[in-house]
Amino acid sequence: MKAYLIFLFVIGSFFQLEANTSVDSLNNKAWSVRNDSLSQAITLSKQALDLSEKGNYLKGEGNSNNLLGVFYKNKGDYNQAEQFFIKASAIRKKLDDKRGEASVYNNLMSLKRRIGDYPKAIEYGFEAERICSEINDRAFLAKVYKNLSNTYDNFKDTTAFDYAKRALNIYKELEEENNIADAEYNLGNRYFNFKQFDQAEKHYISALKYDWNGKAKIYEALANIYVQQKDFNKARLLFDTSILLKKSFNDTLGLLYSYLNLSDLYKEQKDYTTALDYCKNSEIFLAKRGGIYERVYLANQFSDLYNHFGEYQKAYQYKTEVDSLKDLLNDEAKNKQLAQYMYERGERERVEKEKFDLERQKAIAARQLYFILSLFLLLLLVSGIYYYYQKQQSNKKILEQEQQIHQQEVDELMKDQELKFISGKLKGEDTERERIARELHDNLGSMMVSTKWYYDNILEELTQEQKDTSKLKKANDLFTKTYEELRQLSHKFGSNNIKRTGLVTSLKDLSDTISESGKIKITLTSHGSFETLGEKIEISLYRVVQELISNTLKYAEATKIDIQLNQIDDELNIMIEDNGKGFDPYDPKSNGIGLKNIAARIRNLNGTFDIDSGKGNGTTAIVNIPLSNYAL
To answer: Per DSSP, what are the bridge partners of residue 619?
Structure first.
């Protein structure tokens, strides 16, 4: 049952992921085709919005609404654009997506600036600035400053310079070359619009220092300066350079403005015929890209040129069109009239949509095939995961049993070695006691016997002379009793004679025994005499080393242990190092009874105990014992 629920969860997650991926893919494609076909971009984002709403994918819904706002703004349908932006703002606020919310406010500022509602545009700009400051997003704050600069510039407020400079300073601080170039260009535009052409040219040229894909705009801006200065040859050369770059980027809107600028250039030279030709060429790009502002600009240009040719009726018709288009800027009812006005453009978009739908059907069929294959692979994956899980559980039990057996073997080996060490100590102590007893009995005893004989002879001689020998007899009796006591002591001492085997010898024996197993190699090196160690410290240190070796054998999976014993002056240092898998010494779970016992033993010897280890880095244990209190 559990496996079935897991399967259903995985299947549900897969479907949700597939739907979310489709939404993101549609929005990405919409953004990539916006310059070639705005209608196709709108269709794609609407499909993404529909999928998001059905799948309750809020992030995708917010992104789709924001993109549709941008697309309708570029199309010139500002009421629709504002509605989409407001929906996007509400969704991103619900998601607590501060960065996304600031982006929508920035788009709303651009929209309101475009329709001439500058107070509302600035209000949205301040809101975007507040959010960016709150989340400390310096890069996007610079983008907001640039937009505020453009807004203030539209109604000739010199505050535009302040915001343009703020944006430039942030980009310099962030060392973002592309954005520095864009900010230099933006500041140049501010100076151009206030007719400070020398300053404008300076900032345009600064922007050209960077490898920036907006160089076409800079060449065009410089060309406009030369038009103002009546240097038409330079201006024409720069316009041609700008057009070549825009064509390479397929910048339809940019080409529209280039041809309008060229129309202005020839009109300035009073070459109205060529100016009119560029106006007519501009209509080709206007059909692909451009909103009401571009139509107003072009209609004004046509009206002015036809007036120069004396074709007053055509001039009046275009003038009337300008007035009609301006009325449509903020009137929803008249926006419907604009849709009729753009009927021919809609016909072309319908053909493109039919082509797109055919391609989409092919893509759906391919996705269905991909889904069936993915589902089959998913079933195989779930089955494999379940089998792997069962296998892991079985292997885990086997591994635990093997570890228990291994630990029992290690414990038995350690106990055997400890018994052997204690036996060795007892045997050594017996041997030493017997040697002392022999020394007492054979050497000192024989000397006392000889002395007693001399005493006896003297007493016999003194007795024959019949002198007072009472004191001498008393001394001889005491000497006899002392000899008897010494003889008895030698027998008692000899019966329990003991000699210490020694810490180094015992540890060498332990190391050799374990190494003979072939599973691990133990190397023991020592420096010093170790002859002044007391029995207490010797046994305690043997057990400390024994416990550390036992821990390594049980848990470390090591192949090598190095033991170093160094006695320098009144301090004993022991270092035990292995090449095992290591552990975290600061993890409470790692500090078992063994390590606590070791620490307690060393504290009793007034010593210090340190562990240096890390996962995958082996373990080093260091023990330092002061020997001044334990010398024999």
So the answer is: 578, 613
Domain boundaries, the chain: 356-495, 503-626
Instruction: Using alpha carbons, select from 589, 572, 548, 555 the residue that is nearest to residue 625.
Output: 572
Nearest to 141 by CA among 179, 113, 112: 179
CA–CA distance, 445 with 342 (Å, rounded to integer):
136
Rg (CA), the chain: 50
**Is the domain defined by 503-626 classed in CATH 3.30.565.10?**
yes
Q: What is the pLDDT of residue 189?
A: 93
> DSSP code of 588?
G
Q: Is the dihedral of CA 330, 331, 334, 339 positive or negative?
A: positive
Q: What is the pTM of this model?
A: 0.47
What lies within 8 Å, CB to CB, of 461 at 6+ separation is: none
pLDDT-derived band of residue 597, with 50, 70 and 90 as boundaries?
confident
CA distance 154 to 120: 13
Rounded to the nearest 5°, which phi and psi values hold at 195? 60, 30
Burial (Cβ within 10 Å: 0-12, 13-18, ≥19) of residue 562: middle
What pLDDT, on the 0 to 100 scale, is given for residue 297? Answer: 84
**What's the whole-number average pLDDT of the chain?**
79
**φ, ψ dihedrals at 268, nearest 5°:** -65, -30
Across 12-26, 122-136, 166-180, 547-561, least confident range: 12-26
Mind giving me the DSSP string for 451-472? HHHHHHHHHHHHHHHT---HHH
Cβ within 8 Å of residue 322, ≥6 positions away: 296, 299, 300, 303
| Contact (CB, 8 A) for 501 and 429 | no
- Can you state the angle between helices 470-495 and 445-465, rounded to 10 degrees? 160
CA angle (166, 172, 178) in 5-degree steps: 105
3-state secondary structure of 255: helix
Tracing tokens 């400890």 back to the chain, one arrives at 418
